[in-house]
Design brief:
Layout (H helix, E strand, L loop, with lengths): L1 E7 L4 E7 L4 E9 L3 E10 L2 E9 L2 H12 L13 E8 L8 E3 L2 H8 L9 H14 L5 E5 L9 H4 L5 H7 L8 H15 L5 E6 L5 E6 L2 E5 L22 H9 L3 H10 L2 H6 L5 H9 L3 H25 L4 E5 H6 L1 H8 L11 H6 L4 E2 L8 E4 L4 H17 L1
Parallel strand pairs: 1-6, 6-8, 9-12, 12-14
Antiparallel strand pairs: 1-2, 2-3, 3-4, 4-5, 7-8, 9-10, 10-11, 13-14
Helix pairs in contact: 6-15, 10-11, 11-13
Length: 397
């Protein structure tokens, strides 16, 4: 069974093609600058790399072109685009929906209803899915929502202290996100260590970030709440924020609520704190040069990670494993060191040499550490492919 997993942006499309009989990655690639006559196509398949520029007025044209490449007799890995059983999507949020669904008008409407809740994610996904459903009706589109992994979170960690009907009638709860990443970390860590009863704290740190408390493969808490704007500071999204400050900013600046929310969603987080960049590497470089705002941005980010880490250690009664994943979690030895600094009394001891040398999937704890510490590349696309396969098998049965 061949599953294509799509990652969509407003002007981009990235994909991975899996043979789910043995979960082999057959090809990967994507298109940048969709909507342009000089869209950039790239792909890797069967040892062949390919790049070119071509017209791609919309996502459907871009996907069709990628399917043709995958079926090219000289360069591709398919006999025909019809060999693909489904296109899977790491969908983010939808009104009244979670789990895995075949994309239809009702799913698109539910996602569109939350365009303002997930403004960086839902609008491009809805537009692209509509086009693909129209132009590729023979290929099922499967949406695996990030919130699905967090349905095991108990009420104590899920409910806000607001009128009960807000939760019951309007779904105002801590939904949690990054579900595909945290699910992969839970499954892969259990596989490596040969245990299913592990207490894991998964630290997905990247352009958007969250921590997840996991026991025996189930999510018990996630730092993201009702929307992907909450929790830790993100690259340009606010993280935790007191809503009563909104009226103060609106009166002081004359901005509308929509304008202030746009600031919180696009010009806040590490970018807003540092005034330098939304990229942690740039912020670290500026901090090393004495930029006080950049130093503050790093300090706030580390403090937020440690805040949730401490909460989840209490929730789980300790941890067996702490995993760092995502672009920052995997690649910033400085950040990992700052997060773990002074936690030896909790049985958390980082090995400085291992930490600096870490690449890919490897342990980085000191020999004296009671808690295992790992860097681990996540694989959200494989999780979505597994979910799409399971959905198709259930539907066929």
């Amino acid at each position: 069974m061949l599953i294509l997993v799509a990652n969509l942006g407003s002007t981009s499309f990235k994909y991975r093609l899996f043979d789910m009989t043995d979960e082999r990655l057959l090809a990967r690639g994507g298109v940048e600058r969709i909507g342009s006559a000089k869209a950039r196509f790239s792909a890797q398949a069967g040892g062949t790399a390919w790049e070119e520029e071509a017209d791609a007025p919309d996502h459907a044209v871009a996907v069709e072109a990628c399917l043709r490449f995958l079926a090219d007799p000289q360069r591709g890995v398919l006999r025909s685009p019809a060999d693909i059983r489904a296109i899977g999507f790491k969908a983010v949020h939808a009104l009244g929906l979670t789990g895995v669904h075949r994309v239809d008008a009702s799913v698109l409407a539910a996602m569109e209803a939350y365009n303002n809740v997930a403004p960086a994610h839902n609008p491009p996904y809805v537009r692209a899915m509509q086009l693909l459903a129209e132009k590729l009706p023979h290929i099922p589109l499967i949406a695996a929502f990030e919130t699905g992994f967090h349905q095991t979170i108990p009420p104590a960690n899920r409910l806000y202290a607001v009128p009960r009907e807000w939760a019951e009638k309007h779904g105002i709860v801590r939904h949690g996100f990054h579900g595909a990443s945290h699910r992969y970390i839970a499954e892969r860590t259990s596989e490596i260590l040969g245990r299913k009863d592990l207490r894991i704290i998964s630290c997905h740190l990247g352009g958007s970030s969250s921590l997840c408390a996991i026991r025996s493969g189930q999510s018990l808490a996630n730092s993201l709440g009702f929307s992907p704007q909450t929790g830790l500071p993100h690259n340009n999204r606010v993280g935790d924020f007191d809503p009563f400050a909104l009226s103060v900013i609106m009166r002081a600046t004359g901005k509308t609520l929509e304008q202030v929310l746009d600031d919180l969603a696009n010009r806040s987080g590490l970018l807003g704190l540092s005034g330098v960049s939304n990229d942690l590497r740039d912020i670290e470089a500026a901090a090393d040069q004495g930029n006080a705002a950049a130093q503050d941005a790093l300090a706030v980010f580390v403090a937020s990670v440690r805040h949730y880490l401490g909460a989840y250690l209490v929730l789980l009664g300790g941890a067996d494993v702490i995993v760092f994943t995502g672009g920052i979690g995997e690649n910033s030895a400085r950040l990992r060191s700052a997060v773990c600094e002074g936690l030896e009394w909790l049985g958390i001891s980082l090995d400085p040499q291992r930490n600096v040398a870490a690449k890919g999937e490897m342990p980085i704890q000191h020999a004296s550490s009671r808690v295992q510490l790992w860097t681990m590349p996540t694989n959200e696309e494989l999780i979505v492919a597994r979910q799409a396969r399971a959905f198709l098998e259930r539907s066929a049965g």
